[in-house]
Automatic annotation (TrEMBL):
Organism: Pulveribacter suum
Domain of life: Bacteria
Subunit structure: Associates with the 50S ribosomal subunit.
Positions of GTP 1 binding: 9-16, 56-60, 119-122
Species classification: Bacteria, Pseudomonadati, Pseudomonadota, Betaproteobacteria, Burkholderiales
GO molecular function annotations of the record: GTP binding; ribosome binding
Stated family: Belongs to the TRAFAC class TrmE-Era-EngA-EngB-Septin-like GTPase superfamily. EngA (Der) GTPase family.
Residue sites binding GTP 2 per the record: 185-192, 232-236, 297-300
UniProt-recorded name of the protein: GTPase Der
Keywords recorded for this protein, A-Z: GTP-binding, Nucleotide-binding, Repeat, Ribosome biogenesis
Its biological purpose: GTPase that plays an essential role in the late steps of ribosome biogenesis.
Length: 446
């Protein structure tokens, strides 16, 4: 799982500027979710092959009394709790303040890894003005300029260096593959009830595995001869021989669970419809390229009118998940759970489908014969052949000439043909166009 960095500091020290600098390779602020304060944002950063999650927080006052400042402090404390390492950002030009001392005292008491970043330090390398920050007792001060990018790379390398590197699981042996399944959704949509229903079913084997440093828990399940590994996003805990699912919403845990899963079950609440938060989570699943199945829980608790309204809401707000199968369930009454398992396995198989080049090319040429791409000026795109460029999600690479003129509408047409031929239900499908080089482009006419 990706390591997590939290940016903490008093107001106006440049935390958001540093956040933008760290996440510049992927413009992916994915968790400006309803229900969370607007002063806490999540994004992705990448440095070389290393990827990480960054949390931006509002101005921090550990001892804030009441009102918005107390709420901001609470949200910052939550961000620190979720993080593997804290970047304490101070203003190198403004100098040390009493509020910096309060924050430093709070961070020292927690004992969590902490790196001190002196922002706005352009031209201050080796300046005696930075020495006063050693009073905070947090070790070396790293001078950086978030606005200009100076020193940021070294700061991140130092922050992430002591963290353990979590390697991806080895590929499973043929016939022994384990399907990693994440259940994602808003609080109180019924994730805990569904998990408990799964764990209580007959022919189901479940036991605890040790969690990672972030206390993420996985639960192996076996059903119908297939092995699953449930990645916990609902705070699953074991008490004696009884599993208890504590409904809590952690954005970091959800993002990490989605990225480490093969298949994501997106759980919606029929009584509340599709909210902004549901759409954000669905968008992130699509961006991550994960296979997905959508389940609408509490279906038994709504009348026919509410069901119609919900179906219309799904069609409009989750239209980008049309490839996913929809299932209407009641986790509490254990209704509709068997088809759900079938859909999860089907989505996994679709995401890992092998598509032979001859068959892909035949489907492509048949599609072109049925409907040619639109002409762009004097050019008409010429689609020649296709091959598979990856799995989970499946990637189809189409080769030809003038393919930069292929419209998005035509790509969707091709996607529909490929999906139908290979039964790609439940997985995103990415189509890449690769134009062949003209061998005569650099030759003279003489």
């Amino acid at each position: 799982m990706k390591p997590v960095i939290a940016l903490v500091g008093r107001p106006n020290v440049g935390k958001s500027t540093l956040f933008n600098r760290l996440t510049k390779t992927r413009d992916a602020i994915v968790a400006d979710f309803a229900g969370l304060t607007r002063d806490r944002h999540y994004g992705h950063g990448r440095q070389g092959k290393l990827e990480y999650i960054v949390i931006d927080t509002g101005g921090f006052e550990p001892d804030a009394g009441s009102g918005i400042y107390r709420e901001m402090a609470r949200q910052t404390q939550q961000a620190v709790a979720e993080a593997d390492v804290v970047l304490f950002v101070v203003d190198a030009r403004a100098g040390l303040s009493a509020q910096d001392h309060e924050i430093a005292n709070y961070l020292r008491r927690l004992g969590k890894p902490c790196v001190l970043a002196g922002n706005k330090a352009e031209g201050m390398q080796g300046s005696a003005q930075l020495a006063e920050f050693y009073e905070l007792g947090l070790g070396e001060v790293f001078p950086v300029s978030a606005a200009h990018g100076q020193g940021v790379r070294g700061l991140v390398e130092h922050a992430l260096q002591p963290l353990p590197v979590l390697e991806e699981d080895d590929a499973a042996e043929p016939g022994q593959e384990v399907i990693r399944l994440a259940v994602a959704g808003r609080p109180n949509v019924g994730k805990s009830t569904l998990i408990n229903a799964w764990l209580g079913e007959e022919r189901l084997v479940a036991f605890d595995l040790p969690g990672t440093t972030r206390d993420a828990i996985t639960v192996p399940l076996e059903r119908g001869g297939r092995k699953f590994e449930l990645i916990d996003t609902a705070g699953l805990r074991r008490k004696g021989r009884v599993f208890e699912a504590i409904e809590k919403f952690s954005v970091v845990k959800t993002l990490q669970a989605i990225e480490s899963a093969h298949v994501v079950l997106l759980l919606l609440d029929a009584t509340q419809g599709v909210t902004d938060q549901d759409a954000h989570i669905a968008g992130y699943i699509l961006e991550s390229g994960r296979a997905v199945v959508v389940a609408i829980n509490k279906w038994d608790a709504v009348d026919s009118y509410q069901r119609q309204e919900l179906e219309r809401s799904i069609e409009t707000r989750l239209s980008f998940l049309k490839f996913a199968s929809m299932h209407y369930i009641s986790a509490q009454k254990r209704q509709g759970l068997a088809p759900l398992w079938t859909a999860l396995v089907q989505a996994y198989k679709a995401a890992n489908c092998k598509m032979p080049t001859p068959l892909l090319t035949r489907v492509l040429l048949e599609a072109v014969q049925f409907q040619s791409p639109k002409r762009a000026g004097s050019f008409r795109p010429k689609l020649r052949y296709a091959h598979q460029g990856g799995m989970n999600p499946p990637i189809i690479v189409v080769h030809g000439n003038s393919l930069e003129h292929v419209t998005d509408a035509y790509k969707r047409f091709l996607e529909g043909r490929f999906r139908k031929e290979f039964d790609l239900v439940g997985t995103p499908l990415r189509i890449e166009m690769k134009t062949s080089a003209n061998p005569y482009a650099d030759k003279g006419t003489g």
